[in-house]
Automatic annotation (TrEMBL):
It is an enzyme of class 3 (hydrolase). SMART domains: Alpha_L_fucos. This is alpha-L-fucosidase. InterPro entries: FUC_metazoa-typ (IPR016286), GH (IPR017853), Glyco_hydro_29 (IPR000933), Glyco_hydro_29_N (IPR057739). It comes from Sphingopyxis witflariensis. Belongs to the glycosyl hydrolase 29 family. SUPFAM superfamilies: (Trans)glycosidases.
Length: 495
């Protein structure tokens, strides 16, 4: 225990690398055999599935990447869809058509699209809950033979994104693998208790070490939990940081414990499920939309999912979400199921002003390895806005406050860099003049979109801004104010 405590102290003494603070925007990629059926129920968020249909929430989730589990639960939309379209074919049959679709894959085109969107890093799902590895792993899975791709998708994409100047990271599902534990999951208790034992901890550890050794990822992004006890986990972190000195790890590494082991017993799981169900049923619609994983003893950043923090956080964080309710491609999604580019960029601005990044997911098709048009359009809109306003985003830190408001009720967000405070107005500005309430900074100001000057004038406790012309960008307008003295101080030091 003393050794584990000392190792943890050493890990927590390490600062988050500047590149990760500066990058702000990453692309997540959920892609695999689940993109062949590409099916999940439409209509609600992951949080709403748990709050409104708890007893079978995991099988009713809007995530297509959870398809294998969902088809094991009779009566679910996924089970009915599978029976109608694939009969009694096993999920593992989807690997062959997935690999057929790879003949059309162009990793360089993906990388260019991500770069043009303004992303600074890319995180690829290397193994999701279905256990299919997107690299030819040398770590044998005794429970499912031939369950890796023949092509090294991880290596090819890593090379492609690095070739255009982006950093590359890997996602790994350490907490769930349905080739090791095939019991259907319905509730949150089932979900937490499903981390496999037996030979799985050694398997997961060997695979993650293989990913580190082969690809030296800048981001090590685990999901759900981790199958070993804390000691081996902390050694993994230390070895990773030695191999990749500027690497970062996320927060989804809840290590094995007696409490989690007890959930494998049905009476304990039923007790916990009753508690979860009662608590989730009391959440408001807004609070039930997403998930915020619990803090862990060591991480470089936290990862709210379809959720966000409402205030500046001292701890670095990264909001993660799909463009629709699913991460994996869903054949049922129409344009109406996708969040608008304006909504996604506004959420991104909110996150950056509060010490967060955004990891925005892309869910490619499997049939032709293409990125759906709805998603590409949103990536292009991100790129256009960031090309005009990126100086208010990249390399910034939170200011002394994140949120402001004009006299007309328009939302304003603040970011800071040495000698500069940025004001980002969400949505179009309808007049060449506006007043930001309770703001007294002064300095030389310009509009980032076109470099035109902005005149500042104090009006009591408020600040009047006068623009040289109309600001009609429907997403938002950024203004940079060159300041001096305490006004330029950053609100939250990097950790």
């Amino acid at each position: 225990m003393a050794a584990a405590g000392s190792a943890l102290s050493d890990l927590n003494a390490r600062a988050v690398p500047d590149w990760y603070h500066d990058a702000k925007f990453g692309i997540f990629i959920h892609w695999g055999a689940f993109a062949i059926p590409a099916f999940a129920p439409r209509g609600g968020s992951i949080g709403e599935a748990f709050s409104k249909d708890y007893d079978r929430a995991v099988a009713m989730a809007p995530y297509t990447e959870w398809y294998w589990n969902a088809i094991k639960v009779p009566g679910t939309p996924s089970a009915e869809f599978h029976a109608e379209n694939y009969g009694d074919a096993p999920y593992t049959d989807f690997k062959q058509p997935f690999e057929e679709g790879l003949k059309q894959w162009d990793p360089a085109a993906w990388a260019e699209a991500f770069r043009d969107a303004g992303a600074r890093y890319v995180v690829l799902v290397t193994k999701h809950h279905d256990g299919l590895c997107l690299w030819p792993s040398e770590v044998a899975n005794r429970h499912q033979k031939d369950w890796t791709t023949r092509r090294d998708l991880v290596g090819e994409l890593a090379a492609a994104v690095r070739a255009v100047g982006l950093r590359f990271g890997v996602y790994y599902s350490g907490g769930i693998d349905w080739t090791f534990n095939r019991r259907p999951m319905r509730t949150l208790g089932d979900f937490i208790a499903s981390t496999p034992g037996g030979d799985y901890p050694a398997y997961a550890m060997a695979q993650v070490r293989e990913l580190i050794d082969r690809y030296e990822p800048s981001v090590l992004w685990n999901d759900i939990s981790w199958p070993t006890r804390p000691g081996p986990l902390y050694r993994l972190f230390a070895d990773y940081y030695r191999a990749v000195p500027e690497g970062v790890v996320n927060d989804r590494w809840v290590a094995g414990s007696l409490q989690r082991d007890l959930l494998k017993f049905p009476p304990m799981r039923r007790y916990v499920d009753r508690k979860f169900k009662a608590a989730l049923s009391k959440l408001s619609d807004e609070d039930s939309k997403g998930i915020i994983p619990p803090p862990v003893p060591h991480s470089d950043f936290r990862t709210p999912e379809y959720a966000a923090f409402a205030e500046i956080q001292v701890k670095k964080w990264e909001a993660t979400r799909g463009m629709s309710h699913s991460f994996g491609f869903n054949r049922n999604d129409s344009e109406a199921d996708y969040a608008s580019a304006e909504t996604l960029i506004h959420d991104f601005i909110d996150a950056v002003s509060r010490n967060g990044n955004l990891l925005l997911n892309v869910g490619p098709r499997a049939t032709d390895a293409g990125i759906p048009g709805e998603q590409l359009r949103r990536l292009k809109q991100f790129g256009a806005w960031l090309r005009a306003n990126g100086d208010a985003i990249y390399g910034t830190r939170p200011w002394t406050q994140s949120d402001g408001e004009t006299e007309c009720g328009q939302a304003v967000r603040f970011t800071a860099a040495p000698g500069r405070v940025n004001l980002i107005f969400k949505g179009p500005i309808s007049s060449t003049q506006l007043v930001v309430k309770h703001l007294s900074i002064m300095g030389t100001a310009l509009r980032l979109g076109d470099g035109s000057p902005v005149t500042l004038q104090r009006r009591g406790p408020d600040l009047l801004l006068t623009f040289a012309g109309p600001c009609s960008d429907p997403v938002g307008t950024a203004v940079a104010v060159e300041v001096s003295g305490d006004t330029a101080n950053l609100g939250v030091p990097p950790v």
